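HUMAN: Forgive my ignorance: could you write out one protein's sequence and backbone structure tokens?

ASSISTANT:
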Amino acid sequence: MLHVLKTEDWRKTPPLAFYFMPLHLAIVDVRKHLLHMNELGILRCKYIIEHNEELQKKTMHMVKMDLTAQWLAGDELKQDQFKFMYKVIKIIYDSALKDFLLADNKEVIEIVIPNLVAYHALLNIRRIRL
């Protein structure tokens, strides 16, 4: 869980920040709750998670955020692919096709995006060889 948050410059990369920030905030929230439980002492709080509904809810939320972050950008390859797709979709989003993209237009999804992905993949291959 903490491995993905050790990704370099994730806060400056919009697609990673969008999914990593909720995970970071959930971890901080659980940590604060555990520290507060420790301050209250043994007799004032419930350490058995089945009986501590608030801690259980915060922990479940944290795990859900982690699953999403791991699924989308859990390793370097996924992060690279995620950033690449973000750049491609952002080109369409910043163009006149934005309304069609947001409306899930079939032509944009089935024709424009794959062609743009192929074009940018070829550009990246050419840059690597030079």
